[in-house]
Amino acid sequence: MSSGSPPPPLVVGFDLDMTLIDTVPGFRTMLRLLGEEFAVELPVEQLISKLGPPLDHLLTPYLPADRIDAAVDRFRVLYPDHAIRSVPALPGAVEALAAVRRHRGRVLVVTGKFTANAQLHVDHLRLEVDLLEGKVWGVGKGEVLRREGASIYVGDHVHDVEGALAAGALSVSVLTGGCTRAELEAAGTHVVLEDLGQFPAWLDDHLLATRLAALEADLQQRGSVMVAYSGGADSAFLLAAAVRALGADRVVAATGYSDSLPLRERDPAAQFAADLGVRLMTPRTHEMDREGYRANGPDRCFFCKAELLETLVPLAREHGLAHVATGTNADDAVAGFRPGIRAADERGAIAPLRDAGLTKAQVREASRRWRLPTWDKPAAACLSSRVAYGVEVTPGRLARVERAEDAARALLAGAGVRNLRVRDLGDRASIELDRALLPLDPALEERVVAAAVVAGFAEAVVDPRGFRSGSMNEALRRP
């Protein structure tokens, strides 16, 4: 068994003029100044209606060939003082760049504009750009896009379409320039948007569809899988995806039963698997026998995942299943300190969600579209994650945490609590709740605290900072 390779990072290129910025005001001023200096009557409005080609192409019909270079040079000299401050970003431009960032992508600006002047626009408008390359046009843009690994290029002109196609990238066109929908489609663009305001939603849908297709293709070529199934949103979605790709007869769900799995999670997880028509196996795991797990250092999850995989891999082999798959997603892979992921990789588990690039948000959105009941299920890490690092993990401690959480949930059911953790700090408990519920009514808070004491803690307090996923890791980051 071996894990796959994650997809290449998202890289999106954008044209500048009439795609990200409304060049018309500055260009109009510049053409009038140029006409005056070179004593030529330029059809200003006609020229600005078809912005896109390089300046020398635009001026060729109106100036002698031996004066074109001088006019272009003069244009570039005058440009900073007359065509920067008057040029705004087009509606949706900032949001489009932010959408790429939200997906952890790189942003390129690839433009025919003189590089120094293009940079002035980007700086003036504070556009967040990773790389800007100017003085490239048409198919020449393709070389830059290909070199930088761009999979999408956004522009407004048929020549932008040429550049995208030359790079083998998806061509996305906006109708904010001088080209019509018919012209852009005839040039071969793949997508036409009214403006960049539509781009974030389009990008979200495009990436989700692309990554779901990659997930399906990955699972299909695996032949059969055992899903390490906790009942959480990620592993439940992976289980459903595996059934879609392979059929229920070639998929098995396996949940390791131990003291760290809350009892309240078991029946709903079993019902979900049954609804999919999938066989559920519940082997007993013995992470508590591992000294590194009981010691509860920052690497505790390594020992837990090692125990799980060393239980499931031979079980999968025994039942003729080709792979063991975990629900690790693309966010998990970049979330910093995750020793459990390393343990799974070292033991040959595959991580199809991660390898397809699917993030937690995308898993939830796809689950919603598939009408899976787990689509909005709150995160439910194992009980051991509640115990402060350095405090020994024991069955008694875990049972105490579970009793306290169940009691607190019952008391707060009417308040609509979703996220709730009782953190075991040794002799005392810290109770984390959804921030929207804080501060609690004093009488209710007193009852919640008392329930934790009844569960076995010497003392307890409701954390005023509210629920924070992975809050136990905060101590690791302190100097």
UniProtKB/TrEMBL annotation:
Transmembrane segment boundaries? none
Q: Which InterPro entries does this entry report, sorted A to Z? A: HAD-like_sf, HAD_sf, LarE, Ni-pincer_cofactor_biosynth, PGP-like_dom2, Rossmann-like_a/b/a_fold
The domain of life for this entry's organism is: Bacteria
Q: What is this protein called?
A: HAD hydrolase-like protein
Species this protein is from: Nocardioides eburneus
